[in-house]
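Schema walk-through. Below, the input block comes first and the output block second. Nothing else is stored per chain. Lengths vary across the set, and this one has 89 residues.
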Amino acid sequence: MFVDYQNLHLSAHGTFTPYGTPVHEALIHPGRFADQVIAGWKDDPVSIKQIHVFRGLPNSRREPDANSRVNRQHNQWKRDPRVIIQTGS
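--- output ---
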């Protein structure tokens, strides 16, 4: 599975949260997202062996708090052995 995290995150926030909900309250765990895709699959059985997540990484000098927050999320996500994170600045 390939995930463009920012687009998925903002699309889900705009679609599934009440108006005015802060964006940071609609975070998505890539492994749990993949599990929901599998659970909703109606055709032949499917498994997801790798989840490639593409996501920007805030600059640690200019945005240290945001950088730290994103790195904590990544560390949590990587507990799922399927998750492979690709970052860009």
